[in-house]
Amino acid sequence: METPAAYEWIFRVFAFVLGAAIGSFLNVCIYRLPLGLSVNEPRLSFCPSCKKTLPWQQNIPLLSWLFLRGKCANCGCKIAFRYFAVELLTALLFLALWLVFPWQIALAYWVLVALLIVATFIDFAHFIIPDEVTIGGTVAGVLASVAVPELMGQDSRVRALAWSLGAAAFGYALLWLVLEGGKKAFGKKRIRLEAPTPFSWVRKGDDADFIVGDERGLWSDNFARESDRMLLQCDRAEVDGRTFENTTLELRYNRLTIAQEEFALDSIDRISGVVRELQIPREAMGRGDLKFLASIGAFLGWRAVLCSVFAGSLAGSLVGLTTMALGRRAWSAKIPFGPYLALGALVWMFFGTFLVNWYAGLLSR
């Protein structure tokens, strides 16, 4: 085996170091974007606990977290392992892409990998994928395909543009069909509780805390559409001091109906009682996933869209079944789909050609 030349080692080290540095910036995006904070102001990183600005020697990718043993030098609070993991993951993927692909494609894939990492960690933590990642990623994918037509398997920039736009539209439309079909088929879930269980709805600013037994969440998390409704079969219910016996509460995001009487939730501070059965609305996925798959298609093409959906669905199903088997999946829990789409995109990037050849071989037998 031929030993890599010195300049090749220099480029490999550069790819790894650059990836770690980009990973440090991705940590900023992962922390700030869900909170609506600017990724540019303040320009310097700060401790999430004490908010003290970190000097440069405490902000060296990979090394600072290790030397500080995962703690803030100012307040001593723990700094999550996620910061180190994102930097290392980004560095390893940047290096792998540089080793596997021609440099023009590797540069474009670096941008995509950065978007995949940000989307994955934000979706895991907050169950959202910001438009900066999805819409911005789609625009970046189209521009990258025009700059590097080989991303779409083309030698013409115009054809690459058309294929990229088409793949983005295909990705969005495919998941839209899944979303709408899933809503019609599985848009509500009936839960019969083992025993009558206390519940409460307590106003919290513009939202509310919704608690059923040990299950707690925000009221808005249960409603993705204006038409969604929740039904509670109650032994007893109290609405701001008024008591109702053996009744059904029909709840929408902004109103409550009991028999023929309707209440605006804006005028209610507290609903409580004992429930024995719930019917809750649910979605197959969030709309951010649709835009996220569009961005994957814009970078990788229509076949990558199919691979991402298939591989993501398979991985998500395996994880969901495993957690249910271990008894760790609560009835109200949500499963983020974005990270599994990102995994499918990575599978396509590194193994797409192999998968196509393998499948073609099966068909030719």
Short descriptors:
single chain; 365 residues; alpha+beta; 3 domains; eight-stranded antiparallel sheet; 52% helix; 18% strand; globular
Helical run tally: 9
* Number of beta strands: 8
Sequence stretches where pLDDT stays below 50 over 5 or more residues: none
Separation of the first and last Cα atoms: 35 Å
Walk me through this protein's architecture.
- With 365 residues, the chain is of the alpha+beta class.
- The protein has three domains: 1-100, no CATH class; 107-185 and 285-365; 188-281, no CATH class.
- It is 52% helix and 18% strand.
- The chain has nine helices and eight strands.
- Strands 3-2-1-8-4-5-6-7 form an eight-stranded antiparallel sheet.
- Strand 5 (242-251) and strand 6 form a beta hairpin.
- The chain is globular and about 80 Å long.
- The two termini are 35 Å apart.
- The model has no long low-confidence stretch (mean pLDDT 89).
Write the layout of secondary structure elements.
Blueprint: H1 6-32, H2 63-67, H3 81-100, H4 103-126, H5 131-147, H6 157-186, E1 188-204, E2 207-212, E3 215-218, E4 230-239, E5 242-251, E6 255-258, E7 261-264, E8 270-281, H7 287-300, H8 302-325, H9 338-364
Helix pairs in contact: 1-3, 1-4, 3-4, 4-5, 4-9, 5-6, 5-7, 6-7, 6-8, 7-8, 7-9, 8-9
Summarize the entry for a quick read.
The chain has helices spanning 6-32, 63-67, 81-100, 103-126, 131-147, 157-186, 287-300, 302-325, 338-364; strands at residues 188-204, 207-212, 215-218, 230-239, 242-251, 255-258, 261-264, 270-281. With 365 residues, the chain is α+β, with helices and mostly antiparallel strands.
